[in-house]
Design a protein that fits this description.
six-stranded antiparallel sheet; about 25% strand; 11 helices; 14 strands; alpha+beta
């Protein structure tokens, strides 16, 4: 049975925390770099060195927002024995692989009124390429201010999604709009980490609303206090979606303003809402797992399995992780690979 390794990062200087992370995840980081070298050799017109130069162009943008994150990336690189440019590639891979972009992920938030034990959840099926399964890690940060963060990442990334000890949870899924462009703004990986350092729902909301962007992304934000919002963000503006009867779901198309859309509509968000609503008021982790394992509408199902046999296996689309964050009780339930095939492991905050 596959399980993702847990990387424990103790408080210290940003560089020291990064070094500790990189040292523990060396094998996974190097696996990831080898995977992306192979992918970009097949899909990009740029050389690896040119891609590295592009990734490095984001350094001043990140440094202007939070120089500690750049120090942490340098530490990760040194700890793993790879270059700073390599780790910046991993942390900007969303922007690098954006044109064109396949559908990824189905996310949800549940308010206490909809759940069995009156707890709040945020989670998702993370859909991407089969090729990244060998370099996904669970990162457990303890920050110098004692904030704890548990999340999932491609090894070397400062985080992808997660939740923190202040009850803030964040998941994200791909959007692509007609306004997406190759300008430079804060990469979404670094924005997600900033959100997960927030101490309140309002602080996290402000970050998501006010950060400049050049590419689209969907953010599912929730809190243990019973707040949830979905942010459909793009260079064309941000639209908000509120829960309906305590349930909020989203896939990979613009719901509020479909005229922004650059991808075809996905049935997964509506299907997940339909399934969760069947147990409104009594939703629990086993029911969420069952919903995340749903195969209706295959090959566009919530639980994704490789379908396009014309692609090399490493590039085929699949659910690579099932993720449930219990914001009220401080525990994550994480499955490596499709939610229907593997067990969900409990990871305490």
């Amino acid at each position: 049975m596959r399980h993702f390794p847990i990387i424990n990062v103790e408080p210290g200087t940003p560089y020291g925390m990064g070094f500790h992370y990189g040292r523990q995840a060396t094998d996974q980081i190097r696996n990831g770099l080898a995977d992306y070298r192979a992918l970009f050799a097949q899909t990009s017109t740029m050389t690896w060195e040119e891609i590295g130069t592009y990734a490095l162009s984001y350094t001043p943008v990140v440094k202007a927002v939070d120089p500690d994150l750049i120090d942490e990336v340098r530490g990760i690189a040194d700890g793993a024995g790879v270059s700073f440019a390599d780790v910046m590639i991993l942390n900007t891979r969303y922007e690098i692989t954006k044109f064109p972009k396949p559908h990824e992920c189905t996310s949800f938030a549940l308010l206490p009124e909809a759940t069995k034990d009156g707890v709040a959840y945020v989670g998702q099926n993370w859909d991407y390429r089969v090729g990244i399964l060998d370099h996904i890690v669970i990162v457990h940060y303890t920050m110098p201010d004692d904030t704890r963060i548990v999340g999932v990442a491609e090894a070397g990334q400062v985080i992808r999604n997660g939740f923190n000890s202040h009850g803030i949870g964040l998941c994200a899924n791909n959007l692509q709009s007609k306004g997406d462009n190759r300008g430079t703004a804060l990469p979404v990986t670094f924005l997600r980490r900033k959100v997960l350092q927030s101490r309140s729902f309002e602080e996290a909301k402000k970050l998501l609303l006010e950060t400049k962007r050049t590419v689209s992304n969907n953010f599912m934000l929730g809190s243990a206090e019973g707040h949830a919002l979905d942010f459909e963000t793009s260079p064309l503006g941000t639209d908000l979606i509120e829960p309906a009867s305590g349930i909020l779901t989203h896939a990979n198309h613009f719901v509020v303003d479909p005229t922004k859309e650059a991808l075809e509509r996905s049935p997964r968000g509506d299907r997940l809402y339909e399934l969760l609503a069947q147990r409104r008021g009594s939703i629990d982790v086993p029911w969420i797992i069952r919903c995340l394992s749903d195969h209706e509408n295959y090959p566009k199902a919530i639980c994704r399995h490789p379908a396009d046999t014309t692609l090399p296996m490493a590039r085929r689309s699949s659910t690579v992780a099932g993720i449930i964050y219990n914001l009220s009780e401080g525990v994550a339930h994480i499955c490596a690979g499709p939610s229907c095939e593997n067990e969900f492991v409990a990871v305490p905050l």
